[in-house]
Amino acid sequence: MDTIDVQATNRRVIEQFRAGGEVEGMHRERLVLLTTRGRNSGKPRTVPMMYHRDGARLLVVASNIGAPKHPGWYLNLIADSRVKVEVDGHEFDGEALPLLGADYVRTWAELEKLYPFLADHQAKAREAKRVIPIVELSEED
Question: Which residue in 28, 58, 110, 137 has a CA-CA distance of 20 to 30 Å to 104?
Answer without folding.
Answer: 28
